[in-house]
Every structure is written in C-alpha cells, then in structure tokens.
Amino acid sequence: MIANEPTVPLGKVDCRALAEKVLSLGEEAWLADARRQDDYEVHAQTQAIILMFCDGWPEVTVTKSVGWPLLGAEAEAVIDQIVGKRYPAGGRLLRAMVTRLGPGRRIARHKDIHPTFSIAHRIHVPLATNPGVEFVVGPERVPPRVGYAFELNNLMLHHVINNGREDRIHFIFDYAPPAAA
Question: Which of the chain's ends, N or C, has fewer CB atoms near its CB within 10 Å?
C-alpha cells in the first residue's frame, strides 16, 4: 500500500488558503491538543493542531479533534486535490494534522509503528519551511519546498532537524485506499 521508496513526489498543490489560515492562528491553537507530543516522545519538541486522529486496531475509530472547526474546510480542499489526482476514491481518512517544528528543534530518527501505517498513504504538504531544515527519510534528503506534496514511507527510519530561523510547518494526512479502509 505505502510507497516502497523513501518518498514519492506528488507535485504542486494549491495550499495557500490552508497556509494563510494556519499562520493566522494564535498559540492557543497549537497548544490545545498535546496528545501527539505527550504520547510519542519523538514528537516532544513539536506542536500539532490535530484535525482527525485514529485509535484502535484492527477496528479503527477515527474522531475529529479541536483542529477540525479551525481548519477542516481548507484541509479538505487540499486533501481532495491530492486524493483526486493520485489515489482511488472511496478510501478513508485516518489522520489529519498540522505540525510545527520550531527553530533549533528536532524529531529524532525513528519509524512509525502503528499498524495503520502499513495500509495508509502518509502525505506531507509543506506550508512553511526554510533552507535550514534537514528532513531525511532512509537515505534520501527531502528538499524543503512549500506547496509541493509528497508521500512519505514512514516505515523507514526518518528524522527532522530545523537548523533554520523560521518554523517548519507541514500539513500531514493518512489516507487508506478502499481495499484497506
């Protein structure tokens, strides 16, 4: 299901409305739901605005979170662009979030382990970044390019270091195609 390569380029995406909305939000939006940082030590130096998240296996429950009313409409527009061009319709959205890694912060080298990662496509859409971001998946360095979506093989070792002076902000979603959903 997921990419066999470290990343698969998905091309340019119109994410301006989502990026503008995210950048207009105050700190309270970034701090409203800390479960990702609290539950996953590797993400302790990040903040996330969680729109949707899943629990359980093999029965998976997906719930909308505090980020959905803030960003849901703009996020759906981005998701529809990508899924409509690259993936079979009728699947299921398992997770959607916006993540922020501040200057001087890092996400340590790791693999994602929840079983849903073996059936879903993990899509990243950079909304804000800088040339000092080091994002490595397997042997591949991912260039920091706003608005260029890619699928990430998060079952491979990966890490991120923000050596720049600006935040690195990505919209991330997991899409399980119909056969897996």
Answer: N
